[in-house]
Amino acid sequence: MGERFLRQVWRFLAMACLSPSVLALEAHVDGLDHEPAKGNVITYLEAIEGERYSRNRLAAVVRRRSAEALRVYGYYEPQFAVELEGDPVDRVNVTIDPGPRVTVTELDIGVSGDAENDDTFQEALAGFPLQEGDPLEHAPYDRLRNRLSALALERGYFDSQYRQRRMEIRPWEASARLYLLLDSGPRYRFGEVNYQGSHIDEDRLRRMQPFDTETPYLAGDLATFNQRLGQSEWFSSISVRPRIRQGEQLAIEEPSSRWWEEAVLDDDPAAAQPRRHRLSAQALISANDISPRQSHDVPIDVRLAPADRHQFETAIGYATDVGPRVRFSWDQPWINSDGDSLDHDLFLSAPEQRLTGEYVMPLEDPLRDSYRLQYGFRQRDSEDTNSLEAAVELARRWEFDNGWTQSLYFRTLYEDFTQADQEDQVLLYYPGISWSRTRTRNPTFPSWGDRQRLAIEYSDSTWGSDATFLRATLDSQWIRMVGDDLRLVGRTGVGAIDTDDFDKIPPSLRFFTGGDRSIRGYSYESLAPRNDEGELRGGQHMFTASAEVQRRITGDWWGAAFTDTGNAFDSWWPDTLNTGAGLGVRWISPVGPIRLDIAHPFDDEDDSWRIHFAIGPEF
């Protein structure tokens, strides 16, 4: 008895340790030419665990599963010959005579109610692939049924119900009758929006709503509203929910009486009356919901919690252009009920230190329209440039439906600089306008994306500026994937200054090229016109271009091959362009992409190779 028990335990443990692939059957099917049905039979059979059944029982299970797999393709009277191999069984051979295939002889699908005039429902019906006379398949019918149900919820047909929803299969006639009739009822509309917990003025929040009261309900509009509230960065938690009331308790019992009220006087006429239940206020509301609604409005409840008023962030990085770098930020996503925000940013590296801030005042469309007041201080000491600058800028910003952002601004710039053998202090006042757009999929390491920016600025001594100039810059970058393992990156930049006062143009507005994000193989901002002593002066014009091919090596590791070209110069077009090319490695690390490049400059005899290293996203 003990040995038998131990054998049973051992067998149980052995089976428990076997992998599913060992227990699953290997299935082979003959006699069936319809490939989707054949594949479905194999899928059904390979899910069977042969060890669970005796041979006779297993053969019956194989027949039943095969019949289920064939039925969804319209084969309702198949015949099977089953052969089992192995002991225990590990392979099953099934020869199938599928018999006649059921065809659709009657098709009655449609919608009634308000959805009858809804184009989305009509498109779903028009996309139904089966017609009378076609072989029956269950999947299209099931998909349409689920699609209509989903549309009813998404588009506010909350009283919808199927008047008919059935498939009549007559295997002896090889015929099928399909019925799917949805009565949508009325379409509900957006009702009053109720805000709770908001510290921002409700009028400003209502301007962010993508819907108006009494417009047809659409679940997608609620998702858009939720997204917009999140993009504002005013809130730490957001809940946007429709309120569809349901019938609850209709009546409540009389409260239990006190003992002295239990006495019934014989001459009290009320005592002889039957005891009645009272209706609560909630019961009256619920009872009204059970009867047909007079109004088909859906109130929206928005529950919000304020974001932290002060948010701090620290970042540490490294790039060969600037060496180690540290960034501190102090953000105030809201400072009053209008949703105004204030951000401060401190950047520190060996060649450059800067402190910047931005005050944002949202306007009629808080996410797209705003006034922005920016300030900044910057100290630079790099190559032949030493400058201290202070700037203030007032901008009006618009974001359009196509993703482009337009900014109209007026900037005041004071700069005390030494550039090569030139020293000066300038005060400039100049307006400008810019257009920009950034699109990405997976911003950390984009599989697709592009970034464009065009800016035009003008200064004139007529209004007290120390220099007259017209300055324009264009930057463009693209990323595209070819398949899953090949990535293409392209970049170009163009700049020009038209002026007769170039000596009054500060280094921050002149053009320099070279470095990690410009022309690899050359040191940071080392390419520009030079004076007679060989010191950098900066250029009036600039052109750069780059092409890079990246190939996945394994997992998050990519190899890269690239070539960069360009220069900064005094007159358009340059006599020569400086070109560099090389190889690199990309690793998508948990802290962001890490790039390591080795580049060779073809136009610099003193610097044969240069290593470029950077951490951070490409856009």
From TrEMBL:
Keywords: Cell outer membrane, Membrane, Signal, Transmembrane, Transmembrane beta strand
GO biological process per UniProt: protein secretion
Main location: membrane
Signal sequence annotation: 1-24
Any one Gene Ontology cellular component term annotated for this protein: TAM protein secretion complex
Residue span(s) of domain TamA POTRA: 29-98
Annotated ranges, domain Bacterial surface antigen (D15): 325-619
Subcellular location: Cell outer membrane
Recorded family membership: Belongs to the TamA family.
Quaternary assembly: Interacts with TamB to form the translocation and assembly module (TAM).
Name of protein: Translocation and assembly module subunit TamA
